[in-house]
Structures are given as C-alpha cells and as structure tokens.
C-alpha cells in the first residue's frame, strides 16, 4: 500500500490492520509527523513504529512519477491530502492521477480525498472526470466525517478492474470478521452503502 500525505498517522494505523507486507507513507514535512506523534498520539496509535511502515519524507508527486518508471507496483494508493489549494493543488491533477494509475497492479485501487461535495462540487466533478479517463472503473463514494460540516465527505475511486467494487456483501462480511475489524462507523453494510451516493453527487458523474 502507498499513502500520500496522512501525516497524522490515522490512515497508516488503519492500513496496518490489514494483512499487508508493507505500507509506504510519503509525507512532505516531517514536522507534521513529529507534532502529531507528540500531541495527537492516539491517531497513529503506534503505527509509525510498526516494522511494516516505510515512512519517507519527500515530495509525493516526485515519488509517484519516479515509481511509475520502475517495476514497483501497489495494490492500494490512498491520497490523504488537503484541498486543491496552494501546495495541495498538484495532488488533484490529471498528471498525478495518471502516474498513480501506472503505479497500480492490475486490480489496484486509487482512493482520493475529494472534498465536502455540497460546498465543493467542482472538486468532486473534476476528480471523477480525470479518474474516468484513466480507469476502467471510476466512481465517487462517500463517508461521514463529524468534524466536517455541510454533509458527506466525497472520495474518488479508480481501478483498472471492475472486480474489486463488485465484491459481494457476504464476502466483505467474511473478510471483516476474519480480520476482527471493529469500529464505530465502518461495517460491511456501511461499506456497501458508501457507493450509493445522493442525487447531487450522482449528477456530477453524468455525461
């Protein structure tokens, strides 16, 4: 797995709950990690010290572009970025998504932060448009983040295969139980429901 951003360690923590050999996390600023380790340790919950965590401080754009020219491939790429303003803007470009697509395995999945769509519909629409041009299976899905106002957080999904998103609910439930995943939000039912987006988001995915 590859995480671009995510300096607080929360995504890394969740990724390491799965049977992965390695999770590479690329963070531009090591100060973010240092401060989060000191003042928000519950977010990473020891993830930074896991031997499977490969933490590198560098430009994520550069890392992905260079990796695309090698034989290294990832099963999952998660872009845990800021909004497309200032330094974070390059993480929403077609070139960046194209480089990510080249870094994925045949059934690898790219997930990107795409804003709170009720107020940032242009962001989600642009994400979907760029994903659709690069992946056999592209869509938007949603989650609820209580610290964000104005409705659902929208995420972009891109995959070279339609098979992962077509995984049967019973198989998702089996995997969740096998991994012993517990939480206050995620469940097999919530997983399936996340792809059933409201009409105002669905409209952004129409030609």
Brief sketch in words of this structure:
By secondary structure, this protein is α/β, with parallel strands linked by helices. The protein is 35% helix and 23% strand. It has helices spanning 10-15, 30-39, 41-44, 60-67, 94-102, 121-134, 169-179, 188-193, 199-202, and strands at 2-5, 23-27, 53-57, 74-80, 104-116, 137-143, 153-159.
Structural class: alpha/beta
N- and C-termini, Cα separation: 32 Å
- β content, as a range? 15-25%
Quaternary structure state of the chains depicted: single chain
Low-confidence stretches: none
Mean pLDDT comes to 91
Instruction: Write down how many β-strands occur, each being a DSSP E stretch of 2 or more residues.
Output: 7
Strand order in space, largest sheet: 3-2-1-4-5-7-6
Tell the overall outline: globular
Report the biggest beta sheet as strand number plus sense, adding barrel if it closes: 7 strands, mixed
Helix count equals: 9
Q: How much helix is in the residues? A: 25-40%
Radius of gyration: 16 Å
Helices and strands, in order, run as EHEHHEHEHEHEEHHH
Written account of the structure:
The chain has 207 residues and is an alpha/beta fold. The protein is built from 9 helices and 7 strands. It has helices spanning 10-15, 30-39, 41-44, 60-67, 94-102, 121-134, 169-179, 188-193, 199-202; strands at residues 2-5, 23-27, 53-57, 74-80, 104-116, 137-143, 153-159. A 7-stranded mixed β-sheet has the order 3-2-1-4-5-7-6, sandwiched between helices. The mean pLDDT is 91.
């Amino acid at each position: 797995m590859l995480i671009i951003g995510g300096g607080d360690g929360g995504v890394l923590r969740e990724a390491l709950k799965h049977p992965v050999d390695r999770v590479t996390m690329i963070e531009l600023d090591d100060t973010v990690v240092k401060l989060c380790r000191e003042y928000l340790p519950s977010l990473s919950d020891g993830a930074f010290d896991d031997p499977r965590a490969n933490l590198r401080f560098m430009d994520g754009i550069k890392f992905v572009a260079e990796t695309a020219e090698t034989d290294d491939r990832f099963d999952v790429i998660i872009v845990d970025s800021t909004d497309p303003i200032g330094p974070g803007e390059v993480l929403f470009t077609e070139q960046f998504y194209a480089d990510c697509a080249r870094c994925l395995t045949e059934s690898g999945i790219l997930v990107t932060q795409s804003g709170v769509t009720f107020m940032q519909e242009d962001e989600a629409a642009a994400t979907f448009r760029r994903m659709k041009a690069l992946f056999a299976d592209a869509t938007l899905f949603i989650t609820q983040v209580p610290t964000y106002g104005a409705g659902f957080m929208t995420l972009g999904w891109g995959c070279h295969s339609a098979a992962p998103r077509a995984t049967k609910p019973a198989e998702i439930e089996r995997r969740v139980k096998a991994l012993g995943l517990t939480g206050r939000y995620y469940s097999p039912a919530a997983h399936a429901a996340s792809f059933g987006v409201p009409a105002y988001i669905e409209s952004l995915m129409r030609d």
